[in-house]
Design brief:
This protein is α/β, with parallel strands linked by helices. The protein has 14 helices and 13 strands. It has two domains: about 190 residues, Rossmann fold (3-Layer(aba) Sandwich); about 180 residues, Rossmann fold (3-Layer(aba) Sandwich), CATH 3.40.50.2000.
Length: about 400
């Protein structure tokens, strides 16, 4: 069996990480898949490790602008897939408008399907792009023979739109073993000082639904009450959100003693960033399956976390929750962890153990098992979780 993968719109961030890690961990022969062909741009393909059963095919059209890539996907890909003898096409980017059948789509981006979150972008090109993505992905999910969801939360959202009259499975992402670090012994907050502050970390793109400025408000308020704190913000930025964050930083911490923005850090260097922190905060209000939360859990950190989306599904009882738009609630959750060393230890230990359930080996196994199943034309119901049980 030959499977084709369209990576034409997999260019940065979590989509690239998912594709690279799944193919690195895959053993497709176990599922009756003899060959996999991936079409993509040069930069994405360079990150994918070679395998005897894997063809990485670069097409110059995929290095060009979006309209060219959309044309390639709609009119060129189907002919290439037929020439290669592909039994099924897999779209990890979630969108497809061509005529090849059967195909499976992976749902990774929740933002287009959370209207209140998309509304944060107002009348802008970004909002238009989000709306168009919602339309294209809805059409793809309706046409697909199968859909892979990353979380139960995502499955509930999308099946309410496209129904359950197709094959579907929940296959969470994994976490790279480089992030794994056993929880450290927790210290009393009184052992920290302005010279050696308690370091709070938030890794994520600065964006309108990530609420870094609300975390900054909370941390500065706690620092004003005598806690020796430093907030480290790590990640790339969306310009309007970064402008807002800069304004808050200038007002809340003009001397730059508490809030530090470090910009983006390479994936390879992120494990050391987590290991330098004492506590992790995750304040997103819109996620599908938060890889960053997995990484913090695997890194053995105590976590204060947003109560929105799939976060409680992932972190369970291994953290303290807050409304990500309430600096008061963020401060309260962080303060409970600051003053209670035992609670920090308990949360870090639980999160570390839960993170072991999310491996790329498991993700690859369940992904290619599902692709082979859909390609075979057999039916199964109901919607299945990665463990094979009903949702």
């Amino acid at each position: 069996m030959h499977i084709g993968i369209d990576a034409s719109n997999i260019r940065v961030g979590g989509g690239v990480t998912h594709l690279v890690e799944v193919l690195r961990a895959a053993d497709p022969h176990k599922h009756g898949i003899s060959r996999i062909t991936v079409w993509g741009n040069s930069k994405t393909l360079e990150k994918i490790e070679g395998r005897p059963w894997l063809d990485r095919v670069h097409d110059k059209m995929l290095d060009r602008a979006l309209p060219v890539r959309l044309y390639w996907q709609r009119f060129v890909l189907q002919e290439l897939a037929r020439m290669e003898g592909c039994r099924l096409l897999f779209f990890p980017g979630g969108s497809y408008t061509g005529s090849f059948r059967p195909f499976v789509a992976l749902f990774q981006n929740m933002l287009p399907f959370e209207r209140s979150e998309a509304g944060r972008y107002g009348l802008s090109l970004t909002h238009l792009r989000i709306a168009l993505l919602r339309l294209s992905q809805t059409n793809a999910f309706m046409a697909a023979e199968g859909i892979i969801f990353l979380s139960g939360y995502a499955a509930d959202k999308i099946t309410a739109i496209v129904g359950l009259n197709k094959e579907a499975s929940i296959v969470p992402h994994g976490v790279n073993g480089n992030f794994t670090a056993r929880p450290r012994s927790q210290r009393e907050i009184g052992s920290y000082s302005p010279a050696e502050p308690f370091r709070i970390l938030y890794v994520s793109q600065v964006d309108l639904y990530k609420h870094q400025w609300r975390v900054a408000e909370a941390v500065v308020a706690l620092a004003g009450r005598g806690f020796p704190l430093q907030l480290d913000l790590v990640g790339p930025s969306y310009a309007p959100a970064m402008k807002m964050l800069r304004g808050y930083m200038a007002r809340l911490d003009p001397a730059g003693k508490i809030i530090r923005y470090h910009g983006p850090v390479s994936y390879e260097n992120l494990p050391s960033v987590y290991r330098s922190a004492d506590l992790f905060v995750y304040a997103s209000s819109c996620e599908n399956m938060p890889n960053i939360l997995f990484e913090a859990m695997a890194s053995g950190l105590p976590i204060a976390c947003s109560n929105r989306g799939p976060m409680p599904e992932v972190l369970r009882d291994a953290g303290l929750y807050f409304d990500p738009e309430s600096p008061g609630q963020i401060a309260a959750a962080v303060e409970k962890l600051l003053v209670d060393r035992e609670k920090r230890s308990e949360c870090a230990a639980k999160a570390y153990e839960y993170a072991k359930e999310y491996s790329w080996d498991r993700c690859a196994r369940d992904t290619f098992s599902f692709l082979a199943h859909v390609a075979s034309g057999r039916r199964r119901q109901p919607l299945e979780s990665p463990s094979g049980g009903p949702k």
